[in-house]
Amino acid sequence: MANVKPAEGKLGILVVGCGAVSTTFMTGVLMARKGLAKPVGSMTQYDKIRVGKGENKKYLAYGDIVPLTNLNDIVFGTWDVYPQNAYQAAMYAEVLKEKDINPVREELEQIVPMKAAFDKNYAKRLDGDNVKDAATRWEMVEQLREDIRSFKEKNGCARIVVIWAASTEIYVPVYEPVHGTLAALEKAMKEDDREHIAPSMCYAYAALAEGAPFIMGAPNTTVDIPAMWEMAEKTKMPIAGKDFKTGQTLVKSGFAPIIGTRCLGMSGWFSTNILGNRDGLVLDEPENFRTKEVSKLSTLETILKADKQPDLYGDIYHKVRINYYPPRNDNKEGWDNIDIFGWMGYPMQIKINFLCRDSILAAPLLLDLCLLSDLAARAGRYGIQRFLSFYLKSPMHDYTKGEEAVNDLFKQYTMLKNAIREMGGYEADEEID
Predict the structure, then answer these.
(1) Both 98 and 171 in a single domain?
(2) Closest C-alpha to 304, from 313, 295, 293
(3) CA angle, corner 339, sides to 333 and 340, nearest 5?
(4) Which residues cross the membrane (predicted)?
(5) Beta-strand runs (E) in 43-156
(6) Domain region containing 325
(7) Does residue 3 lie in a domain region?
(8) Most buried residue, 46, 68, 135, 357, by CB count within 10 Å?
């Protein structure tokens, strides 16, 4: 191993939000370790990477290359604005059937949400009362830090990872005077600047301050600001984000490279979604949708580049819509209409209709992101974890230095494999498997 600390002791996974995604994730892990379900979709549990070349070539599971935390060593905790325990929340979400929840009912009932750090202005459609009473954003941070410390001690955890699986907050543009430096961010928290400091930033700051990696699973600005990068450097902790890449954007990041590689042109890509869970309800609010729209729109432009191929991609009309439709609940439908053109400019169309289950696609991402962020921390990797871009809609990058995010799914997969290889003491390479 390449100087990676072993995965000794228990790993506490603290999930912000105890809704459809997080309860599907927790139930699945608990069922999998009882041998009653399979963690399908989780690359840490199923994928194999080639290491070595020629005669030394072999294909190994991630856990055989690097020391990953065993599923039996995971302990779950959560924060939520609603007080229902994870069993009640899983039943209410109606993603999983009762027969797939009941075998781990007792364990789920033990997972009772801690009071959430919440500000209704950031998610107007949520009405829970299981919330912290904090006079300032700084006090919010202090209470969250205490939650992390007491959870770690009570459950005998060696390490903690914090992952956001709560609703999308309203859009918070990067504001240099507050978000530019760690000192400015801390000052704004102490002065209770509620306009520029979202509750999610309090979770991220608290996690990093307590030596826990933080993963942003929504498109919130949260850790995607220089002040948080500075905090991650200071605490030597990994951060990752943002927004789980589950349905439509997964398709987009895999399909757009086909068009680009084949040098076909594109005149437009229209994406629409219908979904009915709590996520859909929150995104029905225009200010919250704006946050999601920015995240979803960024994918295409970094794969099909207008500046490099003006003839082909100089005038793409890209539109994204999300529609709240309660009858669908968690069963999201992503519909894409793609207008392309070929030889001599002749038009063609592609239509994709993905009838997906949002939480079923997201749950394995949470597992992989938590296990790999914990691994990164033990390997001494800190700051933005670009190798986790594969799992994220709007991967973090240093936009202050003109860096562009990598959104091409296949390039992202190469980055992921190479990071695992390097942490396992093998050479990074791009040889075709």
Answers:
(1) yes
(2) 313
(3) 130
(4) 12-32
(5) 48-51, 58-61, 74-80, 114-115
(6) 248-355
(7) no
(8) 68
Map tokens 């396992």 to a residue: 424
* 11, 161 Cβ separation under 8 angstroms: yes
**pLDDT by residue (tens digit) across 281-297?**
888 888 888 887 877 77
Tokens matching residue 127: 């009405």
Any domain includes 178: yes
Three-state DSSP at 21 gives helix
CA neighbor of 128 nearest in space, from 332, 281, 286, 284: 281
- Closest C-alpha among 151, 157, 211 to residue 9: 157
pTM of the model: 0.95
Q: How many domains does the chain have?
A: 2
Q: Can you tell me the distance from the alpha carbon of 330 to that of 332, in angstroms, rounded to the nearest whole number?
A: 6
| Cβ atoms of residues 201 and 345 within 8 Å | no
Does residue 431 fall inside a structural domain?
A: no
Q: What is the pLDDT of residues 361-370, one digit of tens each?
A: 999 999 999 9
Give yes or no for a contact between 175 and 101, defined as CB atoms under 8 angstroms apart. no
Q: How big is the CA angle at 235 (ends 400 and 227), to the nearest 5 degrees?
A: 30
Q: Cβ neighbours of residue 305 under 8 Å, at least 6 residues apart?
A: 313
Amino acid at position 35, single letter:
G
Strands 48-51 and 58-61: antiparallel
CATH number, residue 258: 3.30.360.10
194 and 307 in a single domain? The answer is no
**pLDDT band (50, 70, 90) for residue 13:** very high
Half-sphere exposure of 51 (CA within 13 A, CB side): 19
